[in-house]
Amino acid sequence: MRPLKTLSAVTLSALALAAVAAIAPARPAAAADAICYNCPPEWADWGAMLKAIKADTGIDVPQDNKNSGQSLAQILAEKASPVADVAYLGVTFGIKAKDAGVTQPYEPKGFADIPDGLKDKDGNWFTIHSGTLGLFVNKDALGGAPVPACWADLLKSEYKGLVGYLDPTSAFVGYVGAVAVNGAMGGSFDDFKPSIEYFKKLQANQPIVPKQTSYARVVSGEIPILFDYDFNAYRAKYNEKGNFAFVIPCEGSVVVPYVMTMVKGAPHPEAAKKVLDYVLSDKGQAMWAKAYLRPARNITLPPEIASRFLPASDYARAKPVDYARMETAQKAFSDAYLNNVK
């Protein structure tokens, strides 16, 4: 990956101040605990993963519902006296965390198996799994509207009040949605005008814009259509009561990794290392696969899981991007969104 730019002091200060105002402090950890920021039980089946870590290692990792932006902001605010041991972040926030000097290198067992480009060479961050961005749909909550096939469909009046996306200036999955729309509409990391215009038009349909993971709100029908990952949609389709679908929009989408990092000055470093070892272990990676995530290491998906994904022809519409460039473009997009959409 090409050299990464360093966040400005102004940007870091803004992130830290936002965290202090909006996020309650994490509870202190007991001696055997490890604190993870952004390990929400309803997202990517972290609930099952945290239980497995406890059962197999004895380490209690409390659930945490921050998003990536909130997690980094709190880590920055606590830089002088860290509370978190590890963090789970969208890849661009992992890059930001390294640039901000709040990570420490650690290469878990299995680190060498992660492809280049999906990890920091020194172990400041590394991919644990990836997902494909698309539309997570509760078909029973559409009120007679058809399941949308394209990004453009969501601009139609029949979807008024039915569409949700996470705040793209704070939640990583929200920014991924913006990148996906932008690329699908002909934009680039140097030109976010297509996505800004799309979100401006979408406001006419009164979208729901939460800041944190909203899996339960889709399952309940409160948000019938959410910009989200395949793994959440498949989890609902095969594990929840209801009628759910995942759509990779006809114009195209993106594939994006999620990473973990060890926080610099982690209060419980040995426990933190064991947690990071676990999520990259054969058992940990197999658990991600069973939760419909693409493992970072080359582990074959079980046939019964692979058969539940959309056909390869659908996934051909989802492409990887330059994640370092995605990170450097994030602030410009956030500024443009805040100035033109909100």
Uncertain regions spanning at least 5 consecutive residues: 1-31
Summarize the biggest pleated sheet. Answer: 10 strands, mixed
Separation of the first and last Cα atoms: 33 Å
Query: What's the total number of strands?
Result: 10
What is the helix fraction of residues, given as a range? 25-40%
Q: What string, H for helix and E for strand, traces the elements in order?
A: HEHHEHEEEHHHEHEEHHEHHEH
Structural class by helix and strand composition: alpha/beta
Beta-strand content: 5-15%
Mean pLDDT: 90
Would you kindly provide a written description of the structure presented here, covering whatever features stand out?
This protein has about 350 residues and is an alpha/beta fold. It has helices at about 10-20, 45-55, 70-75, 90-100, 170-185, 195-200, 215-220, 230-240, 270-280, 280-290, 305, 310-315, 325-340; strands at about 35, 85-90, 105, 125-140, 165, 225-230, 245, 255-265, 295, 320. Helix 1 (about 10-20) packs across helix 3 (about 70-75) and helix 5 packs across helix 6 (about 195-200). The protein is globular. Residues about 1-30 have low confidence and may be disordered.
Core attributes:
single chain, ABC transporter substrate-binding protein, alpha/beta, 13 helices, 342 residues, 38% helix, 14% strand, ten-stranded mixed beta sheet
